[in-house]
């Protein structure tokens, strides 16, 4: 039995603006066969095919999803994006949220059929934990949810659904997942053989497409990319729109090697990306792919960005009422003075003569610095300083490196961690099949 699944509330914190960690779940669909159903190329519609006229609520095996349920759950997604969503985009969001509510209802009903009961105490405990992750008390989060057009009841319903599905998967799926020691040892052997090679932490959104809907799907993918570039939440959009198995964890594909993408085009794209870069939509067999590179590292190698630095931050400020010439002269004096410093031992004395302030920063991890400064600092020797940076408004400063403790080489995942990841991947695939069967057997009426 997999013990991990009980501790993961997949996607819940993402719905209110938090991020959740999760195992890597590999996705992307197979190439779509051309017209596999043998349908006519230009079918004659006998009714209005416009999906926008579909009613907003549904009855799922007798359970009514109301318009209020839909509105309040949509409000959670809108709040996670922290920006306004256009009316056209909102139509797609509402349609997807309704599908999510239907799936959630099917999951709760399936758990109840197996006599799985989620108590109010469990729901309240998880609700309090989510509030704490947001830095709030439960009553404060209740007020916040109401202020954005959602409610405590809506979030607790989502919590109940997530907990019920997890417990059902433990009982009906995880119990039957077995991973042998040989499989784990083989993965660890391959991992050791790949020591020093690059691996990439990728987040993805995958949208399937065929010949008939390709143009519409591409347009939708471009809209999603546009929203993400304007500050939209990748986790929220992946959860609501992605058709990859990673949708449940906000698109987190985890750390992978490029050959795992199984597509030369995607390997080329990802290998040329920098951490924090968003690319897409990319046309691939079966649909479109949107990729965000969260980070990059070398397998089983120490990451220089984990080095602990001891720094002196030396800064001057400017009088905004002074003339440009006076401020420029002060800047030049500062630059020349910094050049004359001979290591950290002379920094305080020379800074005082320049009317500059000095702040000592010990035990600063290199990756905590802005990316541009990371590269500069990691190339400095002890006693050297960065070039001056800043401006008249915020002040000009330099960082002087006074000490550096490099990280030890990474030891790699343990046997148990590798086994848990393989189990999680298999459970995720089995869960997809289980939910697909629930959809196929459901009686759903749109109101």
Description of the structure:
- This protein has 447 residues and is of the alpha+beta class.
- 43% of the residues lie in helices and 17% in strands.
- The chain folds into 2 domains: 4-31 and 52-301 and 413-446, Chitinase A, domain 3 (Roll), CATH 3.10.50.40; 304-405, Chitinase A, domain 3 (Roll).
- It has 14 helices and 11 strands.
- Strands 4-3-6-5 form a 4-stranded antiparallel sheet, with helices on both faces.
- A hairpin with a 3-residue loop joins strand 9 (389-391) and strand 10.
- The chain is globular.
- The model is unreliable at 1-32 (pLDDT under 50).
- GO terms for molecular function: peptidyl-prolyl cis-trans isomerase activity.
- Residues 197-295 form the PpiC domain.
- Keywords: Chaperone, Isomerase, Periplasm, Rotamase, Signal.
- Residues 1-27 form the signal peptide.
